[in-house]
Amino acid sequence: MPIRVTVWHEYRHEKRNEQVRKLYPDGMHQTLATYLKTLGGIEVRTATLDEPEHGLSQSIVDTTDVMLWWGHMAHAEVQDTIVSRVQSRVLAGMGLVVLHSGHHSKIFKRLMGTTCNLKWRDEGGREALFVTKPGHPILAGIDDHFVLEHEEMYGEYFDVPEPDELLLISSFSTGEVFRSCMTWQRGVGKIVYFRPGHETYPSYHNPQVLRIIGNAVRWAAPVDGGKVPEGCPNPSPDWLKTKPD
Amino acid sequence: MPIRVTVWHEYRHEKRNEQVRKLYPDGMHQTLATYLKTLGGIEVRTATLDEPEHGLSQSIVDTTDVMLWWGHMAHAEVQDTIVSRVQSRVLAGMGLVVLHSGHHSKIFKRLMGTTCNLKWRDEGGREALFVTKPGHPILAGIDDHFVLEHEEMYGEYFDVPEPDELLLISSFSTGEVFRSCMTWQRGVGKIVYFRPGHETYPSYHNPQVLRIIGNAVRWAAPVDGGKVPEGCPNPSPDWLKTKPD
Amino acid sequence: MPIRVTVWHEYRHEKRNEQVRKLYPDGMHQTLATYLKTLGGIEVRTATLDEPEHGLSQSIVDTTDVMLWWGHMAHAEVQDTIVSRVQSRVLAGMGLVVLHSGHHSKIFKRLMGTTCNLKWRDEGGREALFVTKPGHPILAGIDDHFVLEHEEMYGEYFDVPEPDELLLISSFSTGEVFRSCMTWQRGVGKIVYFRPGHETYPSYHNPQVLRIIGNAVRWAAPVDGGKVPEGCPNPSPDWLKTKPD
Amino acid sequence: MPIRVTVWHEYRHEKRNEQVRKLYPDGMHQTLATYLKTLGGIEVRTATLDEPEHGLSQSIVDTTDVMLWWGHMAHAEVQDTIVSRVQSRVLAGMGLVVLHSGHHSKIFKRLMGTTCNLKWRDEGGREALFVTKPGHPILAGIDDHFVLEHEEMYGEYFDVPEPDELLLISSFSTGEVFRSCMTWQRGVGKIVYFRPGHETYPSYHNPQVLRIIGNAVRWAAPVDGGKVPEGCPNPSPDWLKTKPD
Asked: Is D244–B128 a contact, with Cβ atoms under 8 angstroms apart?
C-alpha cells in the first residue's frame, strides 16, 4: 500500500516575487512533489490556498496519509473549518510535516497550544545543521551535520511544547541557535517540524533537505492498528473483555 | 513573596445534588482553598462559573500565579474570550493545575491540542495510585502508593500529548489503568493534571490528595526570570549583544 | 538486506524444570526464533549462556543487527568482557530487546545506570496490558489492550531511567501496575524492554506478545547512516568543512 | 534544614599550570565553595582526588545532599569502589552536578551508560548560551541568553542518553553547537550536566555561570519522601495494604 501524500502550499510568493519564481517556477509544492515521486511507495497530490476549500476537501483529507504544510504571508486566510478538518485527521493518525514558516500556521499553533513564536532575521547567512539523534529514521543517510550556504535565521527561544524527539540543532553565522527538526505526537498522528525553506533560497533543491523530507514522510505515515482513541461521550462498560478475578 | 492562587470551580453539582453538597457544603473550591490557606506562603482566592466573567477578570488573571481548574457538566458555557485570556496567561508563566473532569475543559484542550478523551465508568470502585517518579517535588511526603476506596474509573488511552513527566499511575478495581498525574510546559507556564476528584466521593478530603495539590501549586509557581517569549512580529536585530568574531 | 537477529537465552530453567520444558521443549530461544523466521526479511541465530563466550563471539556480535536477551537465574555468570562487547555494539547501533527477567541482566543495568529493581510476586494472576502510545510501530496490529490469563506480577516503582517512550502499562489482578513496554536510545542503539515471559507461563506462545516482539525487532534495527559517535581522544579540527563567514 | 553540598574537584591543573593557578589560586573547588556559601541555606564542604578515599569516605558521601564534580586529566585515577559508592548514593537521592570535562568522569559514564564522547577543540573562542526552557528553576534569574568571551569548544554529537530536560544550547564562534545544560534522573537522584568551566578561562567567576550552579544545587537537592526503590531480592507480598475488592 503506497503512502498517500498531499503537499499543501500557500503558493503566493512565487506569483509575486521573481526571485522566488526563478527558484521554484511551478511553486515549491511542485518541487517537493517531484522529489517525493522519485521515491518508491509514495503517491503524491498537491493542494494550494487559492483552490476551493484550499484544495482540502473532506475526501482529500480523508484519503491523505501524510500532509506537508508550507505557509507564510497568508496564514490568516486559511479558514478555521479547514483547520479543524485537518486537526481531526491528524488526531486520527495522519502524519503532518510542517516546513519553515509553517511554524506560524493555524494548524501548527492549534496542535501545539502555544504561540510558536521565535526570533528571526533574514540576512542570508550560513546555516549549519547538527545531528543530535543519530540513528533516527528521519536522519537516514545524513552525516553528523550539513550546511546550507544561505538561509533566513530562526533563533531560540522557539515557543513550542517540549518535543518528543530533537533531531537537529542549527547554528547560524550570526551566532544564534535553533532546534530545527523536532517531532511530536498528537492523538495517533505524528508531527514533524523541519526548519529550512525560506522562499528566496534554494533549500528545497538541497539533497540533504530533500532526503530528510522524504524520510519524514515515511516516518510519519500511519501504522496499522493505531486506533482513533475512543472516549466520551461513548463509554464502553464492557470493553475489558476479560474481567479481573 | 507569597504565591497568589486562584481556585476556579464550575460550582454546579453542589447546587443540584445533595450527595455532593454533603461532601462539599460550600463547594469544592472552598474545601481546596481552605486547605491551601493552611500552607505557608500562599494567598488564595476563588472564582466560579456563574460570576461575571466567570470570576476571571483581566486583573484577577493578571495577578494569579497558579490557577486550579475543576469543571464537568458546563465546560461549554465557559466563554472563549476567557479561555483565551487564561491561555495567554499560562503561556506567560502562570501555573495551571487541572483536576479530574477538567480534562475536558476548553482551556486544557486548547493547551494540549488533542481531544483529551479517555475511557470512564462510575462504579465507585477502588483506585490505587502508584508513584513512578519518586523524588519529584509534587510527590513530596507521598509513599510509594496510596489508595482511594471509592472513585470514578478513568482508563487509557487518555488522548493527551506525551507528558514531560509521568508521576502517578492508577489502577482501578475493575482492572483498568490510567496515567493519573502528569506535567507539561506550555510557553513559560507549568501545567499539572491530577485525576482524583469525582464530585460524589470525598477525595478532596483525603490527606494525600490534598498534599499533592499543595505540592503542585508550589511546583507550578512562576520562576523569577522566566520570560514571556519574544518573537514575531518584533524581531530584534541587535539582540545578540556580543557579535561573533 | 535482511535484519540479522541473535536470540540470546540463558537456557537453564528448561533443563531443570519440567513445567518449563513442557512449555518450551527446545528452549524459549527456539520458540522465539521459530516465530521470527516466519516474518519476512529477518535472519535468525540463537546463542545461549553455556556455549563458549556465551555464544557471543566478537564476530557474532559484530554481525548482529538486533539482539534479544532473556536471563533470570544466572545473570551473575555472564562474563563482564562479554557484557562490554555487547554494550559497545549497542552504542554503535545494534538494537537490543530485553525480555521479562532480563531487567536484572548485567547488560541492561550497564546501559541504564540504575538498579533496575522492581516489586514482584509470582501468583499467576491475570495481566492486562493497555496501550498508551497508539500508532507506535512496535504496537502495529495491537488493539487498545490485550490480556494474559496467567503471569508473574511485576510492580512499580521500576527503577529505570525515564524512558524515551512508554508504550504499554500493565495492571495485575492483585491491583499493581507496571510500565511494561518502554524504549530508550543509548549511543546509536535502540533498546526495548518488554515485560511478559515468565518461564512457567505460555506467554511466548501468545500471538500479541509475539507480534510485539517481531515489531520491536524491526523498530530496533539500525538505520542507514546512524554513525558511531566520534569523540575524544580524536578531535577533528577541520570537520566543519564550511567555515562561518 | 540546610542543603549539604560537597564540591569534588580533581585539583591537578592548578598545581601544574600557572595560568590556571592565577585564575583559581586555591583551586576551582574553593572558588565554587566560596560562591555557594554566599547563598542561604547551604552548607559546603570540599573533597579532592589526592585526599584519602578521594575525600569521599562513606560517612561524607552519606551526609551529602548534592555533590559537584569537576575532573579532567585524572579520571582514570578515581577508584572504582568510590565510583560505586557515589553511584549508590545518587540512586538513593543525592543530587549530582557534573561540570565541564566531568562529562568523561567514571561516575557520569556509569550513570549514563554511554561513551559520553563529544567533539572538542580549544581555540578560546566565544560561547553563547541560549535558553530553551525558560521558567525552569535552574535558569532563575537568567535572561534569554548570555555570553562567555573565551571558552573551549564542545560540539555535537554528545553521546549521552536523551535528557529529561534540555535547558541551554551553546553556539561557538567557529559554528558548532552543544546541548550545554541538561538534566536526568537516575533512581531517586537528580543529575545536572553544565558545560562551561575549562580550566584556562575564568568561567567560574562569571555571575550567570555561578547563578546557574547555585540554582542547580537547589534543584537537585533531595525531596522529602523520595524513597530508595525497594525491590529484588526483597519482595513484599503484603505491601499493597488495601487489597482490591
From this structure: yes
